[in-house]
Amino acid sequence: MPRELQKVIVMGLGYIGLPTASMLATKGHQVLGVDINHKAVDTINSGRIHIVEPDLDVLVRSAVNSGNLKASLQPEEGDTFIIAVPTPFKEENGNPKAPDLSHVEAATRAIAPYLREDNLVILESTSPVGTTEAIARIIASERPELQGKVHTAHCPERVLPGQILRELVDNDRIIGGTTKAAVAKAKALYKTFCNGAILETDSRTAELSKLVENAFRDVNIAYANELSVICDRLGINVWETIALANRHPRVNILQPGPGVGGHCVAVDPWFIVASAPDESRLIRTAREVNDAKPEWVIEKVKKKAHRFREPVIGCLGLTFKANIDDLRESPAMEIAHTLTCMGIGQILLCDPNVTQERSPMPLYGLKEVLDRSDILVLLVDHDEFREIDPQVIKDKVVIDTKGVLR
Ligand code: SAJ
To answer: What value, to the nearest 5°, has the Cα angle with vertex 367 and ends 365 and 368?
Structure first.
């Protein structure tokens, strides 16, 4: 193998691990992807994918066909180990939003027996400050003879679901090492596929930078969501207000909606709050403002529903954001589910991006929902909903949480 080409072990073959593993493989590295899900391992080894992301199927197929990408339930020895496993919440000491590092710890223990002197271990999972150092401590306790001889770094993933492959190549990349040598090694690896700038720092700063990016987005969206509630009280159109304010050269307010979902923006700010609870007042409040938005939408629907004897209520959209099929932590789903359980009328759900087998509740076609509903609740700004003819819905009560049916 040429010097810059390595054997890379990628722990976790989800939305980040699989694109990263396939990208490295198509650049010539020899990659072993490891996952605890044997179905995912089998699917990838047959050149197919188990998640939805534009163009990922083509990349994985070519990576597997080249012989450079293999998936397995077990790690092996290699040069670099990348950890890309989930970091969800857990309940701890009365805090329901404490970071759950059990997957990161398990992945570290799983690779420990295979580590050799001069190996590099990269944490890509979004993690609370200090996690990379904790990984180094686990390695030191599992392999005391390697103490100080294995490099560790945090290289947070920053790609946007729906645009992962483009952003993996084009985005700037932060590399935070526990030592300078770790940074240099990680940089050499990422340079083989990343066209963006490589920004060098220490591991703790890298960890916080990643959390801060998503918390910034969350605070900005909370501002937009709070404005939407204020505007509703005052009878003013929030989207027009924000569009006008954003014409100021130094103002850039994001868009309000039914709440904030997904597994990043609605999660990561809590990792900052958990590590500095007394100091994170604004970040915590933003989370609370965004988490309260679904309930506000539900109350609005309830008030409108009281005008009808047996209203038919059409909910448009279930995913956590537009033009994807991902239902994780979706505020639209939360609203649709609560409305269905409340029994205030017949609820018709519609999402052109979600198949019936993936939906926990029955789905209806868009035309039927538009025809039959007395009340329409738009929850996701999918392209299909932007094309709804205003004439078709002119006699309906419309609650438009994304401002697309104007
Ligand atoms: N949302 C709004 N209003 C907006 C923008 C978004 O209500 O103006 C909502 C969305 O509908 C969704 C939620 O916020 O429910 C999150 O969506 P998103 O598109 O803001 O972000 P994610 O979760 O898909 O991806 C984010 C990205 N982070 C930033 O843009 C700072 C991505 O770059 C990260 O890599 C990703 O989190 C991650 O993995 O951390």
So the answer is: 70
Give me the pLDDT at residue 4, please.
78
* pLDDT tens readout for residues 42-64: 999 999 998 888 899 999 999 99
Amino acid found at 64: V
From the CA of 266, how far away is ligand 1's center (Å)? 8
**Euclidean distance between CA atoms 319 and 307, whole angstroms:** 28
Give nearest CA residue, ligand 1 atom 32: 160
Give Cβ neighbours of residue 358 (< 8 Å, ≥ 6 apart).
325, 327
What's the confidence (pLDDT) of residue 2?
Answer: 56
**DSSP label of 363:** B
Spatial contact of 258 and 271, defined as CB atoms under 8 Å apart: no
- Distances from the Cα of 391 to the Cα of 65, 298, 313, 349, 368, angstroms: 51, 26, 18, 21, 16
Amino acid at 259: G
Which residue from 264, 268, 290, 351 has its CB within 8 A of the most atoms of ligand 1, so it is best to mutate? 264
Among 198, 191, 188, 194, smallest CA distance to 170 is for 194
The ligand 1 atom at the shortest distance from the C-alpha of residue 214 is 31
Write out the H or E segment, with its range, that includes residue 152: strand 151-154
Give the dihedral of Cα atoms 51, 55, 58, 64; nearest 10 deg.
-50
Q: 85 in helix, strand or coil?
A: coil
Cα(260) to centroid(ligand 1), Å: 8
Cα 221 to averaged position of ligand 1 atoms, centre (Å)? 10
For position 3, what pLDDT does the model report?
Answer: 58
194 alpha carbon to ligand 1 midpoint, in Å? 22
Residue of the CA atom closest to atom 29 of ligand 1: 214
From 264, 293, 304, 350, active-site residue: 264
Residue 155 known to be catalytic: no
The 10s digit of each residue's pLDDT in 382-397 is 999 999 999 999 999 9
Q: Which residue bears the tokens 């989370």? A: 287
Name which of 392, 2, 397, 387 is nearest 192 in CA terms.
2
The 3-state DSSP class for residue 120 equals strand
Q: Is 16 in the pocket of ligand 1 (CB under 6 A)?
A: no
CA atoms in the 13 A half-sphere facing the CB of 124? 26
Whether the CB of 260 sits within 6 Å of ligand 1: yes
